[in-house]
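Before relying on records like the one below, remember that each one covers exactly one chain. Contacts with other chains, cofactors or solvent are not represented anywhere in the record.
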Amino acid sequence: MEKQPSLAGKLWLVGAGPGDPELLTLRAARLLASADLVVHDGLVGAGVLALIPPHVERISVAKQRSRHTMKQDLINALIVREAQSGKQVVRLKGGDPFIFGRGGEELDAARTAGIAVEVVPGITAAAGCAAQAGLPLTHREDASAVSFVAGQCKDLSDQDWSGLAGHGRTLVIYMGLATAHAIADKLIADGVSPGLPVAVIERGTTADARVVRTLLTDLGDLVAREAVQSPALIVVGMVAARADALDCLGAPGIAEQIRDFT
């Protein structure tokens, strides 16, 4: 049974968007200016962090693959404790809090502790980065459905991804760089054509944004060949051929095959 909300402080779970500070919502910007404490992820862009006033306390809980500044249960305890102490706490998360952001876990922790909590949505990376790249996730000719999956799932080979990519569908993969070879093998094993176009969006919406394209069978080699860095999204589907992108000329013939889709 949930406790009654605490009158001491409050928690906001706030989406910071995909990186560009101009894509931050007005409500999020207002909350950053009025918070007592901002607890932020490593994927929150420097431009967004620059909007936090100097007097506002901030704590980074940045996470990287296999290395965590703070484990999730400790983050939950931190934000609950700080709100219980009377602070107005903003938990600032890249993209949207509820799209692969563990916002649901933090919401549950706050509710269980009786902390008043609100969620402020943000532009998720899939929508923001794809739009900047000129890549429509849906298109009347190419895709009427979109799926989001995490590429760092345990036992990836045991996941059922059949039907998530292919004719009329777009698949967006978060956190998939380290497992790009396995992702391509998995999708092909589940029936996706090896020749389906793929776009990889690196550091989307930032000044360093880059988009490269290839075919599904070449995905793992592309990531290595182009030295793609995190954060990055992988988009699989016919719409990937529409991206404003650099063709991957290091793989003979692939650029020409991609152009055949456009």
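Residues 72-84 form the longest helix (13 residues).
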